[in-house]
């Protein structure tokens, strides 16, 4: 089976018995949800502090903060490119599944729950079909900011 999977991706692994793959995907979504919120908050902070956001991304993207969310989606946020790589509505579905599993496992993940609420706000603004990077729009509204007036574009 592995040769078939290798046609679709390079990072292939067996993580345990039945259900382990699903739990791994949900773990991935937890990390992404919290990371993208950190990127959005960082960009808002940098913007308000008067920093060149392109330079910020280039500088911190090569260090410990570097991630797909920062290095790829950060420039898209700055450039107002909210086209989906992954739809907000699908991300909410994944977060809902994850939060239900958290209840079954008797754990609390308040960061994930908070990010899920922010995305629900984005849906209320008409953003269900946007990419996950459109989370920026929610925090812009919360802070009465518009990063489209940024000092530089990527």
Can you offer a commentary on this structure?
The protein is mainly α and 154 residues long. The protein contains seven helices and no strands. Helix 2 crosses helix 5. It is globular. The N and C termini lie far apart (41 Å). The mean pLDDT is 93.
Tell me the number of helical segments per DSSP (H or I, 4 or more residues long). Answer: 7
- Distance between the terminal alpha carbons, to the nearest Å? 41 Å
Taken from the alpha-carbon principal axes, the silhouette is globular
- Uncertain parts: none
Rg result = 17 Å
Oligomer: single chain
- Percentage beta strand: under 5%
In terms of structural class, how would the helical and strand content be classed?
mainly alpha
**Arithmetic mean of pLDDT:** 93
Number of strands: 0
Largest sheet: none
Helix content class: 55-70%
Query: What string gives the helices and strands in order?
Result: HHHHHHH
Quick description:
With 154 residues, the chain is mainly alpha-helical. Helices cover 62% and strands 0% of the residues. The mean pLDDT is 93.
List its traits.
154 residues, globular, 0% strand, mainly alpha
What is the fold's blueprint, element by element?
Layout: H1 2-6, H2 20-48, H3 53-60, H4 68-78, H5 88-105, H6 110-124, H7 135-143
Helix pairs in contact: 2-4, 2-5, 2-6, 2-7, 3-4, 5-6, 6-7
């Amino acid at each position: 089976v592995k040769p078939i999977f290798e046609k679709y991706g390079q990072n292939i692994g067996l993580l345990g018995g039945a259900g382990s793959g699903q739990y791994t995907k949900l773990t991935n979504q937890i990390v992404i949800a919290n990371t993208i919120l950190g990127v959005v908050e960082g960009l808002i902070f940098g913007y308000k502090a008067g920093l060149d956001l392109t330079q910020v991304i280039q500088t911190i993207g090569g260090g410990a903060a570097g991630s797909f969310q920062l290095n790829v989606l950060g420039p898209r946020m700055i450039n107002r490119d909210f086209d989906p790589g992954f739809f907000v509505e699908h991300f909410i579905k994944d977060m809902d599944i994850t939060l239900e599993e958290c209840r079954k496992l008797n754990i609390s993940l308040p960061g994930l729950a908070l990010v899920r609420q922010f995305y629900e706000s984005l849906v209320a603004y008409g953003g269900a079909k946007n990419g996950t990077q459109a989370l920026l729009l929610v925090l812009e509204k919360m802070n009465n900011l518009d990063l489209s007036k940024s000092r530089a574009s990527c």
